[in-house]
Design brief:
Helix content is 33%, strand content 18%. It is α/β, with parallel strands linked by helices. The strands form 3 sheets. The chain has a 6-stranded mixed β-sheet, sandwiched between helices. Helix 11 links the parallel strand 13 and strand 14. The longest helix has 15 residues.
């Protein structure tokens, strides 16, 4: 996919961290070639994370993130530092921008420790090279994968930094596959796409688009229909399809139409395997059966789409949970980057497929819940469990 059509969740996330006035924003502008971030001599100019999608060759599509100073102070400063910590949960590669004149400080070393704890590869960029004596050596920074001296004024080291970031980004290993590894060339996959009031006019939603692309990458064919035409579509095929993938919201109707010997799953479950931890989310679905009156259930969306009257997260999912459990839980909702660091108040977390989130961000959310002993599941897994078809829709994955 090119720059204009690569979803943000599929891009390598590269975040720039450091203390106030270390030169983060100037360096981000130099790397992106744009005046992306506001720059001034006033400490704390960057108040919120700023993101820019770009191509970083030979790596490919990336998102560059500029963060507030990690040493910010006061009540507002604490909120900015908290926003910076949230970026840690989503980035694939970190750039620690160290004031090249002053040298590393305690906050820089604290950031290096956080990168190490979370397994984030780090490049240490010593800024303001134009103000440093020529030939001066670079201090040792244990924990950084590479070190480079840069100047946003003269351009020194910018190309080297970009090449280093591209190399480290490419070392993350092979990209996981959404569905292609389950298919063989020549296979046919039927994709069931309901067109209802929540469907975006004139386009398919992101999980459907990405699944189609991955089917084509496998050399297979994607046949798309609505749930109302599914029976007719299956009857028209000379041989049964290799698999049927449906929107989770119509799992019940689709499961009755698809023959038992044809593998069936959903877009949401594909994304659970692709970006999350499918086994953990399958285990988390059992918690729906243990809910009681007053149990607290957190329902999370990775994006901030406009909600319709029959929105799946705020309307349909609570209704299905109430009907299945026979109790009245208390539901809370989050969207976008607003995912709690402390999940302990909740008895269950139900998350969307996370198509707009990076794989590290989605896995981090699942891992956080597991570490805190809070069951977590996703939309497709939860809906399949409540329809009594979870074992069937997990068969394609050997679970």
């Amino acid at each position: 996919m090119g720059l204009n059509d690569t979803p943000s969740g599929e891009r390598v996330q590269i975040a720039f961290f450091g203390v106030r006035n270390a030169g983060k924003s100037s360096l981000v502008n130099a790397v992106t070639g744009q005046q992306l971030a506001v720059v001034s001599d006033v400490a704390g100019t960057t108040t919120d994370p700023v993101r820019k999608a770009m191509e970083l060759l030979p790596l490919g599509p990336v998102v560059i993130v500029d963060t507030p100073g990690f040493d910010d102070e006061g009540a507002l400063g604490e909120l900015r530092v908290e926003a910076t910590r949230k970026v840690l949960a989503t980035c694939d590669v970190a750039v620690l921008v160290v004031d090249g004149v002053r040298g590393p400080c305690d906050a820089d070393r604290q950031l290096l420790s956080l990168f190490a704890e979370q397994g984030i590869p780090c490049v240490a960029a010593f800024s303001k090279a134009d103000l440093v004596t020529a030939g001066a050596g670079l201090p040792e920074l244990p924990g950084s994968a590479a070190t480079v001296r840069v100047s946003s004024v003269t351009g020194e080291g910018i190309s080297e930094l970009k090449e280093t970031l591209a190399r480290i980004g490419a070392e993350r290993g092979p990209e996981p596959q959404l569905i292609a590894d389950l298919l063989a060339p020549g296979d046919t996959v039927v994709l069931v796409v309901p067109i209802d009031s929540a469907a975006p006019k004139g386009r398919l939603i992101l999980p459907q688009q990405q699944t189609i692309r991955d089917v084509l990458e496998a050399g297979a064919s994607a046949l798309i229909c609505r749930d109302a035409e599914l029976a007719q579509t299956l009857a028209s095929l000379p041989t049964p399809p290799r698999m049927v993938v449906t929107d989770s919201q119509v799992f019940g109707r689709v499961a009755k139409v698809v023959p038992a010997d044809v593998p069936l799953t959903s877009f949401s479950i594909l994304f659970s395997r692709y970006k999350g931890d499918l086994a953990a989310q399958v285990a988390g679905a059992r918690a729906i059966d243990a809910l009681e009156d007053g149990s607290r259930v957190l329902i999370c969306e990775g994006c901030t789409h406009h909600r319709q009257c029959e929105d799946i997260g705020t309307v349909k999912m609570p209704r299905w949970v109430r009907e299945h459990s026979g109790v009245e839980p208390v539901f809370e909702f989050t969207s976008g980057g607003d995912f709690p660091l402390d999940l302990s108040p909740y008895d269950l977390v139900i998350h969307c497929g996370g198509c707009t989130l990076g794989a590290r961000a989605m896995r981090g959310r699942v891992a956080r819940a597991v570490e805190q002993g809070v069951p977590i599941t996703n939309y497709g897994v939860a809906i399949a469990h409540m329809h009594g078809i979870l074992p069937r829709v997990l068969k394609p994955f050997g679970l």
